[in-house]
């Protein structure tokens, strides 16, 4: 996991934990960025690699 500003990049190996892990990451980024979860996006950037970050321009 790496954290840049209010974004988190995760490599999730266990497919059974993807939903739970991403939900927790969204909650963490939402809190750090002081934004509701609706303003957080998840981008898949590779096999098993996800970036959770605030939506730009808010």
Write the layout of secondary structure elements.
Elements: E1 2-4, E2 7-11, H1 18-33, E3 40-46, E4 49-54
Antiparallel strand pairs: 1-2, 2-4, 3-4
What does this molecule look like?
A 4-stranded antiparallel sheet has the order 1-2-4-3. The chain is an alpha+beta fold. The protein is 28% helix and 36% strand. The N and C termini lie far apart (25 Å). The mean pLDDT is 90. The protein is globular and about 30 Å long.
In short:
The chain is an alpha+beta fold. 28% of the residues lie in helices and 36% in strands.
Keywords:
58 residues, alpha+beta, four-stranded antiparallel beta sheet
Main sheet properties: 4 strands, antiparallel
Fraction of residues in β-strands: 35-45%
Question: Could you say which overall geometry the principal axes of the C-alpha atoms support?
Answer: globular
Distance N to C terminus: 25 Å
How much helix, percentage-wise, in residues?
25-40%
Strand-pairing-aware structural class: alpha+beta
By DSSP, the count of extended strands is 4
Low-confidence stretches: none
Please tell me how large the radius of gyration is.
Answer: 11 Å
Order of helices and strands: EEHEE
Structure annotation, total helices: 1
Average pLDDT, rounded to a whole number, is 90
Adjacency order of strands in the biggest sheet: 1-2-4-3
